[in-house]
Design brief:
By secondary structure, this protein is mainly alpha-helical. The mean pLDDT is 75.
Amino acid sequence: MKSLLAFVLAVLSVVTFAATPNIHRPHRRVSAPRKTEIAVPWKTVAAGGAATGTVIAAYKVSDGVEEGIKTVAKENPEAFADSLSVLTWPVRWAALVLFLLVYYWIWRVLIRRTPTSTPKG
């Protein structure tokens, strides 16, 4: 999980990096002077900072959750089993909903392909 968070942080830092635009004008005889600085909108900078802050906060929280689960597992295994079932509850419900959606989609496709017993005409 930590490696995934580090990867997201690296990707977000590259995405929010401002670079000079590549302007291509093929029929211009005199080359235009290039600007060494570009104006970066403050919203882009703010979004990059917020995304980076979110990833760093998630990394710190994951450290705390990991240490807490290790402590509970060592000191009270019964409470660990109960907390594990509570932590996996959203994943189980998401898997059930996904299964039902796929089942419904397959059912709809089969219903469309099944010919009706009443002849037309």
